[in-house]
Amino acid sequence: MKFGRAFILLQLMCVTILYCKGCPPKARRVVEKCVFIVSTGRSGSSALQDALNQLPAVHIRGENGGIIPQLHGLHNHITAFSFPPSAHPPDSIKMYLKNIENGARPSWYNGFAPDAADRAVQSAFSELYEIPGYTVGFKEIRYALKYPVIKMFKHRDPYSIRAIQHTYDMNVSTYRALSDQLGFLKKLCTTPKIIINMRRNVTATHQSNFWRKADISVLASMTDMFLNYAASHPETMLVYFEDMFNPVTNQTLADTLKRFLQVDESSAMTFARVGPG
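^ that's the sequence the OP posted. Answer follows.
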C-alpha cells in the first residue's frame, strides 16, 4: 500500500475518534511500554533492532517510511482546532451557540477537547503497533534536517512529502525540531524510552553511500543534537556502533540495554546476528 493511502486510513481512524459522538463508549487504548531507536543511519540500527527483538516480550519494527511524521502533523493540526485546557471539559454545543451569539462565523468551528489530539494519535499507534504484554516500537533514521528528510523521501508520493514539509519547519532550530519530534514520540505510550544510536567516528558514517553527498557538517550537527538531547533526558540511552561490535564492550552494552528496558538480564542477546553491514 502506498504511504499516502496508508496515511488516509490513519486520518479516517482519528476522525472517527474526534467526531463519533453517538458511538458507544469504549476504553481508551494506550500502549503501556514503547521504545524507539533514533539513529543517524549507517550506525548499526538494524543490528540493534534485531538484538532487542531477541529479548522476551520486546518487538521492535523497522523504518516506517514517514507514517509517524505524518501522524505528528495530524496531531498538530487537531491541536490547532481544539479548545484550550482552561475550557475542559468543553460542552461543544454550548460553546458553538455562544460563539454564534457573539457574532462569530461557524465556518472554521471544530472545538475538539483539549486532549483529543493525544487520544487520536495514541489510538492510531495502538492499532498499528500494540502487542499485549510487549514493549513495542520501531527504529527510524528520518529526522528534521533538511538534507536527509528530502533525500530519503524523494521516492515517496508527493502527498507524503508535502505532509512532512508541513509538519517540520526547516527554518526553525534543528535541535528544537528534533526535541519536538522526540517529544511527540513520547506521547504515544504510557512509559516511553528512546535509544539514540550513532557512531563516535562521524567520518566513517559520512563515507557511507547514504551520507556521502551531504556536507559532513550536517551529520556532525545531527550527532551533536543527539548528544545534547541524551544529556538532558534521563529516559534516553546512547548506543554507539563501536561498542556493539567490540568484543570487549558489547556484553556490557547488552546488559545495560536489558536494565534500561527492565527485562531479564539473563536473556541471550547478540549484535552479531545481523552484523555491522
